[in-house]
Each structure stands twice: as C-alpha cells, then as structure tokens.
Amino acid sequence: MRRILIAAAVTLAFAQPATSQFAGTWTAALNGKTYVRLELAQTNGALTGRIGLADIHVDGSGVVDTVMSDVPGFTPIFDVRLRDGLLAFARKDGDDVDRFEMRLVNEGAELLFAPSAADREALAREGVPLPKPIRLAKTPR
Q1: Distance CA 33, CA 134 (A)
Q2: What CATH number did the domain enclosing 62 receive?
Q3: What is the reported pLDDT for 4?
C-alpha cells in the first residue's frame, strides 16, 4: 500500500508542472493584428480555458498570410487532455467541433488545427491547404 501511495505522489508531482506550463494567455499576431488568443487556467490540477480566433487566410503552403477580422469573442474549450507533452482540446463552432493540439516549443508554443478526416477531405476538395502550426507567444503576467 505504501508503495502505491509513493508512486501516486511521484506521478502527481511530475504531472502538475506539465499542466502548469501551459497555463496563461497565449497569442498569435500578424502585422500587429492578433488572430489567436488562448487563455488557459489550471484549477485543481486540470486545465480549463477559452479561445478566440479571427478569420484568417493561408497561402498555398498553409502559412497564415492575412488576418481578415479581429478576434470576435471567446468560446470555451473542452475535452482538454495532456499526453506526452501534447495538449489536445476542442471548441464548439456552431454545430461543428474544432479540435486543436498545442505543444510547447522553445520560449513559446505551436498550435495546430486537427480536423477530422471528413473535414480534411472537404478542405482538399475546396483546394484549401491545412494551416501550418501557428506560433504562439505567452503573454507575460
């Protein structure tokens, strides 16, 4: 029993810092115009948050080249999971669910749109490339 408690304590000690590294406000901007704002908070060891996304255009290789609107507001995120350094989460967009993955890199993070197979097919039919990972910067507190 004591070994189980020690193992659980060690697991929690290593798991909590991983989630706390994601907590904070993350943004992406192009030419001074913010197009992603992700706010993550750690509550009782779990991450919660919300995301705001502006309308963007990507070039033929999937790089954001135009921000077409301001961030209109926020939607809550859900299904937040951390596995092997990758934070996965979803948000509701009308009747659709958008899925994302976030990975910490160097002094920031990368956010990747993770569409379903059906969405990938629809984008391909329309000739729309998948966006490349978006570089996020953490806003200092």
Answers
A1: 14
A2: 2.40.128
A3: 45
